[in-house]
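for the writeup, i need someone to sanity check this before i put it in the appendix. the sequnce is what the collaborator sent (i think, or maybe the updated version? ugh). structure was predicted straight from it, no edits. if anything looks off just tell me and ill rerun, i have time this weekend
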Amino acid sequence: MTPWLDVIGIGEDGWDGLTPAARVRLGAAEVLIAGPRHHGLVPQLAAERILWPSPFRELAEEIAAMRGRRVAVLVTGDPLWYSAGALLQRRFSPDEITYFPQLSAFQLAAVRMKWSLADVETLTVHGRPAEQVIPFFAPGARLLLLAQDGQTPATIGRLLSEAGFGDSRMTVLAAMGGPDETRIEGRAVDWSGPAPDFHLLAVECAAGPDAHPLPPTGLPDDAFVHDGRITKREVRALTLSALAPRRGQLLWDIGTGCGSVAVEWMRSGRDMRAVGIDASGDRLAMAATNAMRLGAPRLDLRKGIAPGVLDGLPSPDAVFIGGGLSDDLVRRAMEVLPRFGRLVANAVTLEREAVLAALQSEFGGSLTRIAISRAEAVGSYRGWKPLMPITQWSITR
């Protein structure tokens, strides 16, 4: 197949910064799709000019209707680094597309900040909830964030301050590589300056005396809002280990409660997904609060009773059953799990233990008894206070 779609990265230096090959392809294009700023960087072309659609996700379908013509799309920097490339890859065969990358905003920002790009976190809040950067707040961490708009520094500054990182240094870098390059510096706690809508934000995280840095997983129980019915930290760690999260995968958390397992699943990787299901509106409200506070704002919460509520959900890579365990529910989950999919179910009562024992006898997998005690005060001394033992069944398809 002959490529007909060119996706070309461009910088603030416009035409002069493009490679000869990219210039040739732009000159041959019949249609040029770009934002107003990008169009302004290449004023001399004869191609029919079209602006990016709104919403942007409709871009791929608009381009598909042009198949048979020579189409070029202009984007900023590297098309495959938080840009349009990923969207187009989902719609078109790689054989139809040719990419012409430019230096990305991350690369330019690392140079401006004199940071090793390999040692920083590269993130985006463009078109995404800003709260998803919270898991990356850590003492000494360096973050490079593609901004949503001019309010992004104030939003990130507020999140940093609420987490005890108000002394963090923030630097706005805009129009890098062009004649209007701009640099604005300040602290998270008192950020008040305006910022250009299109910019990259560099953050040097500094933990204050009131900071309580949290690991990606293994969060303490008191990090969550809960009503006492929570998968305890130690059990949660073993549960996540059995669920074996892998980048980009989807979890069904059935009987999610306050959302502790789903939230930690999503914190384990920047593109993890989860659906939390519960029959209680009050618990779903707690899960929503925890998801926002702990950096998993895209947790998809559904009210209902499984297995009926599972109809129409995207197929999971892993399933956790923390509540509502039944033989029918497990069989439904086993039907939809793909090869290498994982199922983990926890039980406290003797009746639910019997269900797990029967399932393990039929399907195999591992049946584990988890008994944990915590040291607590006994008068002026200390002693072991046991938690309710948990029976856990885990299986990989």
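The radius of gyration is 25 Å. The chain has three domains: 5-103, 106-204, 221-396.
thx in advance!!
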